[in-house]
Amino acid sequence: MNRVFRQALVCALTLLVSVTAAADYRPDVEAWAIGALPPQSTAVVRNATLWTATADGILEQADLLVRAGKIVAVGRDLDVPRGALDIDGTGLHVTPGIIDAHSHAAIIGGVNEATDISTAQVRIEDVIDAESINIYRQLAGGVTTINLLHGSANAIGGQMAVIKLRWGADPAGLLFDAAAPGIKFALGENPKQSNWDNDHPRYPQTRPGVAQIIDEKFQQAADYARQREAFPEGRRARDRVPPRPDLEMDAIAEILAGVRKIHSHAYRADEMRMLITVAEAFGITVGTFQHVLEGYKLARRMAEHGAGGSGFIDWWNFKHEASDAIPYNPALMAMAGVTVGLHSDNPELARRMNLEAAKAVRYGGVDEHEAVKMITANPADQLGVGNRTGRLAAGMDADFVLWNGHPLSVYSRVEQTWVDGRRFFDRETDLAARAALDAERQQLLAKVLADDEADSEAESEASEDEPGLRLIGYRESELAHDQFCHAQDFGHVHGIDFRRGNR
Amino acid sequence: MRVFTGLLAALAMMPTFAAELRQPSIAVDAIVGVRVVTEPGTVLDNATVVVRDGLIEAVGRDLEIPADARVIEFERGEDAPPLTLYPGLIEPYLALDIELPDEDETPPGRHPLIRADFAFDPAHWPAESIEAHRRAGFTTALIAPATGLLRGRSLLANLGDGGLAANLLREDVAQHGHLRERAPGGVYPQSLMGAVALFRQTLLDATWQARARAAWQRNPAQARPDWIAGVDALAPVLAGRQPLVMVADDPLDSLRVLEHVPAEVALVLVGHGHEYQRLASFPRKPLHILPLDFPDAPDVKDENDRDVSLEDLRHWQRAPENPARLVEAGFPLLLTAWQQSAPGDLLPAVARAIEHGLDADRALAALTTDAARWLGIDGFAGRIRPGYMANLVLVEGDLFTEKPSLREVWVDGLRFELAKSEPPEVDPAGTWALTLTFGSMGDVDGELTLTGPPTGMQGSLSVMGNNSEITEARVSGKQLRLRIASGQGNVSINLDIDGDRARGTGSGPFGEFSVRGQRSGPGIEEVQS
């Protein structure tokens, strides 16, 4: 089938599926409307099963004490301060908050700046969508921290933003200040534009070209940093033309200085080996490979270099470069000593990350506690926040989840999700709030009808509008440009592509 | 008679020759017996305003009317609301799209979205938009470029006829920008984060270029820095001497702009109406130019058609409270008709905002004195006070009502009558012989032909062999109002019809004249048969 036609079909189907899925969907909660954040409670969960994600492993009939946003103690029969919120954890399991190291779930105005082979100057932190309903929905799946990544359209993409899911906070308040600076790279077919309409073909069009351009950009940034450093200070600088500041080069120079970590989209072993080689030539370490389908072929080399692996467990064959994959990949990489995490790359999948971990038990026999670490402690370490979140231990941020059963069971669900010692999601509160939201809605509908009657002559012009292809329940901001469809000149058909992500 | 040939040709074929002729001296007018709101909170009943040479000469009760004044008086019924004279309204954001050059035409050294050096030319004068604003009560506007990421400099003008030359008050008033813009032709940037990065880079470039060029000029014995077009115009903005007016799309965009514009810049936000949602998050309280395009009520009459979201319902309810919420939170506020489907929709929207808590004097100040102060013209605009420009709006009753009835707008002492139409009581169809009297300069004959029913007339005006299409012909009560539009201004004629006789006045960019007429040809029935 003609490629362009096929992609048009994919875009059209995407839209269709989204419309169907959205038909019964009404956004009810809005981030701005929650007013103040939930209070930072002193709280204790008593007599629960704690999955610590530390050397302590799984603690039965144990207590968890949190105060002022931090975990104060983990253990049995803890001394509990008077007035602490007391949660009976009998029969409940507690895990650290889930960390999704690959997400595009709360980005506004486009996930890709796809125009140049390097757009290191662009920053996800400038476009965080604090109103995205995904934040609340993912809290309901036990997620507390996500890494918002630029897409994979270019070899050197934008700077990433790690956020905590503090539903209701503004973008600056969502940012996780402790996270190590990072940047998206991409290897393989996407940066060489092989699936696009090449109205604007650009260098490179081959895998060796991708290697070459990364090497070239590193050299440019090294030159840039040298020039900046060599420029004199004070009075001697007065009559000298200063080097022009360049935000792209600033970011790449930070990579070379080891301050900014690379998180690179990659499927194939050969291209991952290439990036390790280029990085080592510049004396730097790749932070993680993302998707990392063929990681099992390269696991020892990855471990030796120090690169983490952040992947899917059972998702492949969506294109040729993503074909040689096995579900045993996370287990095999972990056996070789790679820090392994599992990610969503998809706002829907992100609500069921516990089941991704469960699959690592099924495929490769990963220990259950180790499997939970693949969605908590390990991605936390990959993002440079392992000393702040991802584990249940004294001194860590109070980011944790209460499950009504074994966290790796398909029958279990999240009862409460806490971030910084604030209970941002509580199943009971949510259920109770639905009645209030419905009442508010009915009240407003009644007001509209009353106003209509009072002003029956003024026929609403809005009612004449053609309904057209409108995604009910989504704000315009959520229907951000999808580069894949956009590059095909289907710019007006903007579906929410839940399936594709930026694979 | 020959003296008049050019003048009349100009009337008929505006604007060809008018510039070559001396303008008649501007009249002295005394508007008497009206209620005058001289500024927000100050009202004079049954007062007089004397206008001379485009300026207000005197305001007050019991004024002595100058002997040379044309006295403008209004007949009012017992129960009619008082005619009220307000200062002309000031539109702080009249946005004007400017066509971008083709991508191929963008030379090296110029990013197509970085147009900070753009300035308007008389050819850009938006005569139609100007007239629409004037009909809505505006007499002065900040005309701002609306294309690009950094869009260029606005100018301040009165909304009279005669183009930019006759109306310019201040140029180079503010710099304008909007982070939403995407580059034409698929080049960088195509995402919001890309636009933000380009914005940040451009501010850095502006600072760097000033320093680099200065260093090279002092010491040319070194590599010459590349020159980046457009960014030098940002110097006064970065120094805090010229305001930067940024359009924000939503609350998160407002916060984004506040984060990326340095605190020393005099930032002004053109708002979006959702400010109430995250007011507490604003790190500063910049001046807001607020549109009032409140959403219509969703159509929920049909029970099966109620898939309107709670989000939409909430905004429908709260949007009219937004201006009051901003004021309450301590934000300085101006109002704009921008985003309204027509400028005339602003006043009813202001009335709704007042119903929802906005102080009426504050609203009037936002459109007059406060706007004038921000624009640096409060010494001669925004009030009805001696020495101020004679920019006025005359309204039946109050300005801020659901259906405001604007009678007249005065710009620089020139009178534009725009009373609301009444049902036609006469049918002026046919051919009319007109006599136009230009003060002491004498009379000229013309021929007016009108066809169609009084509610939808068409026709033409022929003077000295030059024939012009009538742009608009309306019959209101016993009055016939004609308008002939052209690029540089409008000719309007108002005639009182009495059987086959007509009397009235007319005005154009070249001054005012009086008209007498006699129907010579067949009326509508005869034409149709």
In short, what is this structure?
The complex is a heterodimer of chains A (503) and B (529). Chain A is of the alpha/beta class and 503 residues long.
Mean pLDDT value of chain B = 89
Mean pLDDT of chain A: 87
| Content of β-strand of chain B | 25-35%
What low-confidence regions of chain A span 5 or more consecutive residues with pLDDT below 50? 1-25, 457-502
Strand order of the largest sheet of chain B: 22-21-20-19-27-26-25-24-23
Major sheet of chain A, described briefly? 8 strands, mixed
Q: Strand-residue fraction of chain A?
A: 15-25%
Class by helix and strand content of chain B? Answer: alpha+beta
The percentage helix of chain B is: 10-25%
Let me know the largest β-sheet of chain B.
9 strands, antiparallel
Shape descriptor of chain A = globular
The N- and C-terminal alpha carbons of chain A lie at a distance of 21 Å
Q: How much helix, percentage-wise, in residues of chain A?
A: 25-40%
The total beta strand count of chain A reads 17
Distance between the termini of chain B: 39 Å
* Assembly classification: heterodimer
Overall strand count of chain B: 27
Number of helices of chain B: 12
The class by helix and strand makeup of chain A works out as alpha/beta
Give the radius of gyration of chain B. 26 Å
Uncertain parts of chain B: 1-10, 12-18, 524-529
